[in-house]
């Protein structure tokens, strides 16, 4: 259940546009590990912000994740480095979605949300 996690509003800047997204903040090892596992529905303009204590390299997987997601990997300046689409996985072995970059943050949203909102790699997230 994600409603027990702190939420905040963030702004994503793309050209002259500003898009507001409500995110559930995963900023502890436990919250990061659980992520959006077992969540059956994510409201349209909501997502999960993963906050790491230091830059990391490596990917995310979708084990026990029930809904398809898109993920943006973000550097310490808020720049979106890579956006990937991910599919649910209920198998014992699941693929990893690796951006090929070091990153400090990641945002998961419903599949296609970034594209629908014309947000692309190189855009910026204001995390305040």
Q: What structural class do the secondary elements suggest?
A: mainly beta
In CATH, the topology is named Jelly Rolls
Q: Spatial order of the strands in the main sheet?
A: 6-5-8-3-2-1-9
Overall body shape: globular
Strand content range: over 45%
Number of folding domains? 1
Radius of gyration: 13 Å
Low-confidence stretches: none
Outline:
This protein is mainly β. The chain has helices spanning 29-34, 113-116, and strands at residues 7-14, 17-26, 46-57, 60-61, 69-74, 80-86, 96-97, 102-110, 124-126.
Structure description:
- The chain is mostly beta strands.
- It has a single domain, classed as Jelly Rolls.
- Helix content is 8%, strand content 46%.
- The chain has two helices and nine strands, in the order ββαββββββαβ.
- A seven-stranded mixed β-sheet has the order 6-5-8-3-2-1-9. Strands 4-7 form a two-stranded antiparallel sheet.
- β1 and β2 form a beta hairpin.
- It is globular and about 45 Å long.
- The chain starts with 6 loop residues before the first strand and ends with a strand.
- The relative contact order is 0.26.
- The model has no long low-confidence stretch (mean pLDDT 94).
